Amino acid sequence: MHIRLVLGGLVTLALAACETTGTPPTVTGTTTTSSPETSTASLEQRLSGTVLRLQSTDGDSAPMVMQLNEDGSSATSMGGFTLTGQWQVEGTTLCQTDIRLAGMPSDDQTPQCVEVSVSGDSVTLVGRSDDGNPETFRGTIEEL
């Protein structure tokens, strides 16, 4: 049985479509800066095996926890719901695919993506909300 995931703020970030613009980041140690020479692998390496603890900058939604496992699997929890899936990085974009709630796949199999920037232990994710406006979440990045 396929389901459409409509979970308020969780949908706006974890399942939000995102425009890919800008210059890819360079990850140096734990700092990410803008540079055209950056490889996708460096940001992917920085995010792999971490937990992102995030809060919407407009305060509209519950805190979110996104676990990005080294094997490419992910778990995103918010408001008592947990979505699982697969994650990957392309440039400065973090995408989740094969998104499931309680093991049931979404009927929208489009990759859901957000722009990512990391500076030290701080992380910012920007995606598009259901109304098409930007939605920003900020928080911390921690090793698993």
Structural summary, described in words:
Residues 21-40 have a biased composition (Low complexity). It comes from Histidinibacterium aquaticum. This protein is mainly beta. It has a single domain (9-143), classed as Lipocalin. It contains two helices and eleven strands, in the order H-E-E-H-E-E-E-E-E-E-E-E-E. The radius of gyration is 14 Å and the shape is globular. It starts with 8 loop residues before the first helix and ends with a strand.
What can be said about this structure in brief?
It is built from 2 helices and 11 strands. It has 144 residues and is mainly beta. The protein has one domain: Beta Barrel (Lipocalin).
Which terms summarize this structure?
Lipocalin; 11 strands; globular; signal; mainly beta; two-stranded antiparallel sheet; 50% strand; Lipocalin-like domain-containing protein; disordered N terminus; 144 residues; single chain; eight-stranded antiparallel barrel
The CATH class is Mainly Beta
Could you say which structural class the secondary elements and strand pairing correspond to?
A: mainly beta
Helix content: under 10%
Oligomer: single chain
Sheet having the most strands: 8 strands, antiparallel, barrel
β-strand percent reads over 45%
Which fold name fills CATH's third level, the topology?
Answer: Lipocalin
| Shape verdict | globular
Count of runs of 4 or more consecutive helical residues: 2
Q: H/E series, N to C?
A: HEEHEEEEEEEEE
List how many beta strands DSSP finds.
Answer: 11
CATH architecture: Beta Barrel
